[in-house]
Fold these 3 entries.
Entry 1:
Amino acid sequence: MQGAEENQTRRLRGPGENPIIGGPKGTMRKDPPLPTDAAARPAEWEELAARYEEASRRTPIDLVPASWILESPGLRRLRSPGIRRVKRAFDIAGSSIALVATLPLTLLIAILVKLTSRGPLFFMQERVGKGRASYKMWKFRTMVVGAEAEGPQWAEENDLRATRFGRLLRRTRLDELPQFLNVLGGSMSIVGPRPEREHFVLRLAEEIPHYALRFEAKPGITGWAQIHFPYTASVQDTREKLKYDLYYMRRFTIGLDLKIVLRTARVMLFGLGR
């Protein structure tokens, strides 16, 4: 039994590196098996990392240098003026259509937020965006007033601080509809890594390899990490989620953005998947 368990949690290490494969049982998908003698063949790490990405749809952040991510085709596309214009046009068109199409729903949500709990309609919070620039992010309020009276806290999937109606909004992601205003204003994109607060960014950048690379892209309402991973409630959760974010950035295409948007729509409309 012990041998089987050890085999199930087998991990790959590079010289002086932490394990990159595996995690708390039941919290994340299984990693693809990699040769256990890879550490003895550093020249093959790039090939192994590419195989890992292909199989798991994540970037092995402990195995690769920052240059392997920064010089990837996806990030080159994200820096391309032409592609940036196309993505911006997609954001403007998509957010404009979304704001108009969801206006009746937005008004209904606004009424229900006010009827079901005390406090403001919107929740505005400072987040860190592309290039570490700060901006105010809009959401419908889903938590009780004073939810962070004791300081910033990570939100959990079934957060006890959420109101009854707020839990429904969070589960369907409808609380994020006002963020289309952030997209129109240019501080966010429809698809990208989720924005984080400066309070957490400072700590995460110290503890997680390549965390600062996520600021090479605009933060998004939805993203590759959001459709594959639940709410992050710890440094370890954020570490796993970053693997998805960097995979998206390394493999970015407009087609991948469309795929993510369709997967997100399925969650919002039917409550299926993440």
Entry 2:
Amino acid sequence: MTHDNKEGMPRGGAGAGNRYKPMSKLKLLVLGLMSLLGACAHVGIQEVGHGQYSVSGISSSGGYHGSREEAIESAHEYCGRFGKRPALDGFSDEADVDAHGERMSRVTFHRVPSQPLEF
């Protein structure tokens, strides 16, 4: 095996090209995650006042059920960070499908204490 650079990297042979494979795996991972997020996504939590919050869910499949589910999941994740759960106040749905075929729903909620499971 010959070395033709200052770092002693092999030219040809078994080790050639291996230093680039982790980057290609990273690219594949990023692309995979982006495709998953393309199916469903949420827009950041917004405080709308008086202890009430709002979040939007976007879904390219499942219609309003999918976008509402995505918004509710985001509300649960947000409230869980504070040891609470969301109490849903209402929904608003976008009437039209956007250029990407996605539907959007917004849920408003407030945080309430989580109740422990009792058996």
Entry 3:
Amino acid sequence: MKKTCDKKTFKIVTFGCKVNFYESEAIKENMIQNGYEYTPSKAADIFVFNTCAVTLVAEHKCLKHIKSVARKYPGCQIVVLGCFAQLHPEQIRDISNVKVLIGSMYKNHIVEYLKSSERVLKADQNMRLANYEELKINDFGSEVRAPVKIQDGCDNFCAYCIIPLTRGKSRCRKKEDILDEIHRLAVRGYREIVITGIDMGSYVDGNTKFSDLVEDILNVEPKTFRLRVGSLETSQFDEKMVELYINNPRLVPHIHIPLQSGCKNTLERMERKYNLDEFYDLVLRLKKSVKNLALSTDVIVGFPGETEDDFIESCNFVKKVGFMRLHVFPYSIRPYTKAATMANKVDRTCVKNRVRVLVGIGEKLAADYENKYMGKELELLVEEELEPEGTTRVFRGYTENYLNLKITSNRDISGRMMKVRVSEKNLYSN
């Protein structure tokens, strides 16, 4: 493999959530600053795997890819970090070319560990005792949209979730560091900032809570970017947060509020921190007050003890809310969680059938939402150029309410905000 000035090449493979993608970008910048050369090609001297453990499927995907690279490139060095590495280091440490295994901490030390003459295995720390590890980015590939991490960890301990153990306690980034990073990204020309975290709504720094932080971000200069909130729990919407959505058009009206189940009994067994009445009351308030509101959510199907009636109740609630996008997940047993020891596990064939039904409901709701905006003018952030249609250039991006649209132009309009009228012709699905 040809290398520039004998620099070691590296590539990063990222699984899972937006926080992982942010952290991978920070690791990439740090390695480049320390003399390593990033390569998009299949082969590299160093492979960095940022892993996920939210489901058993995610774990298998991570391990399969790591082993495949180890076999295909026996001379490479492998770095493994993230939730799967934290949860199951024993499944990784025996892979001979794994040089660094660090779990969910020490991400700022990867360069140091790579230069060490010793193999580094540090994935056995108790993440409930961890402090916030500051990572920074200055760039994110293309100057359009950039995520900014504000928080890590979770203290909710929902019955099905392993993340409080793999990511640790909730801990927050200093407000000044967040605002400085957003200022740098805005100056560089980024048109959308997506704030992200594991449990963002639990953010606190001194007297600053989450809604205060959002207000401060919206006041960062230059005010040339729109702001998207990655995900927010029902219980974490205070009055100020609702008012910000109502009154500030730069805070985009696409809101992801995790539901997990629309069945009262299932929700209680999941040990979520809200009930369906509270969820629906918030939805009604937002629908009444926020222009072009778009609600998306996550729903778990086949949680232990979920009966057919429970599933029907959950489907009916989803339809009642009218989400514009639905992320449906079959329940996955996670070790060390309460749900793992619950009785009345649901048959896997039954779970697959229920997933198929709920996905169908989600597709119908998405089509209904799109139809509601036919002929209406929205603001599109142009993110990328697609293959041309004949001699016409074609671009794609998201509107403020997260409709995925394409637009034609004779010139390069990447990174620009454009007024677009929604039609069947410009809806885009890849």
